Amino acid sequence: MTAVLECAHLVRTFGDLRAVEDVSLTIAPGETYGLLGPNGAGKTTTISMICGLLAPTAGTVRVLGREITPAASDAKAAIGLVPQDIALYPDLSARENLRFFGRLQGLRGAALEARIDETLDVVGLRDRAKDRIDTYSGGMKRRANIAVGMLHAPTLLVLDEPTVGVDPQSRNSILEAIANLGTAGMAVLYTTHYMEEAERLCDRIGIIDVGRLIAEGTRAELVAGLGSASRVTVRAEGTAPALEAWRAALATLPGVTVSATATGADLTCADSTATVAAAFQRAGAHGVAISGVEVAAPDLESVFLHLTGKGLRDE
Fold first, then answer.
1. What is the band of 228 on the pLDDT scale with cuts at 50, 70, 90?
2. Within 13 Å, how many C-alpha atoms sit on residue 40's CB side?
3. What pTM value is reported for the model?
4. So what's the pLDDT on residue 315?
5. What is the DSSP string of the chain?
6. For the segment 195-218, what is each residue's pLDDT rounded down to a tens digit?
7. Structural domains in the chain?
């Protein structure tokens, strides 16, 4: 099956900084691809090149076989972008916003109105279509933002953290709407800081860190790559210097990856029993008190922690 998106050996530099280094990926029709990475990993730069907002220093982006560049207006018409920030006019209604953006995309008349109704149905806002955006909740604004991005029926929809700052009910509605897009045949590129969203939505996942795509595959493939590794969550108390020294001591253990948390540390390891024992031993040596331990089987969070040494939400 012909890929909707093909990124080949993308590189982007800013002076001496190599923000993206040799990233290649593809997305097939109907596939939802999750691009995950800690802050500063290169996600935003990669998305900017994919959408034609930023020219690559090297490499190419093609959508439906057509190269995407900042000047390639016709080729970029196949892409719908839903940015993190709400890109709507607050003093217009949802329908008025959609009508405005639809006209920018070349839609007119009955075809435009029909498409507006379809997208409002997908995001569950048909009954609030006449209300001004500034009367919407945060979650409703996010859903209206998605409606604008998909209004012109793009072949590739790029969603950059579309659920940031919304309540759980609105978030669930957004995820249901996005899940329906893949089943309708639209290719979706999805970034998020919530691992459970990637688990729920994404057919394949790419993990990017320090500008490089360091792993790619289905959830099952990525987890299988960890083998028998477990995730150990340790809750601990102590001064900031003591906790830092304790984590550093744990990081010297063979086969153990350590990520700092607000309440202690997350560890991935092959031998959870030995690692827990070492955590207690080193806690005593560094003046740290452990208040709780949880051991979990390998999951996508464990893979991410193991590969990057960071949690997905790490600043």
1. low
2. 7
3. 0.79
4. 42
5. ---SEEEEEEEEEETTEEEEEEEEEEE-TT-EEEEE--TTSSHHHHHHHHTTSS--SEEEEEETTEEP-TT-HHHHTTEEEE-SS--S-TTSBHHHHHHHHHHHTT--HHHHHHHHHHHHHHHT-GGGTTSBGGGS-HHHHHHHHHHHHHTT--SEEEEESTTTT--HHHHHHHHHHHHHHHHTT-EEEEE-S-HHHHHHH-SEEEEEETTEEEEEE-HHHHHHTTTT-EEEEEEEE--HHHHHHHHHHHHTSTT-EEEEETTEEEEEES-HHHHHHHHHHHHHHTT-EEEEEEEE---HHHHHHHHHSS-TT--
6. 889 989 999 999 999 999 999 999
7. 5-218 (3.40.50.300), 228-297 (3.30.70.100)
Residue 314 pLDDT > 60, yes or no?
no
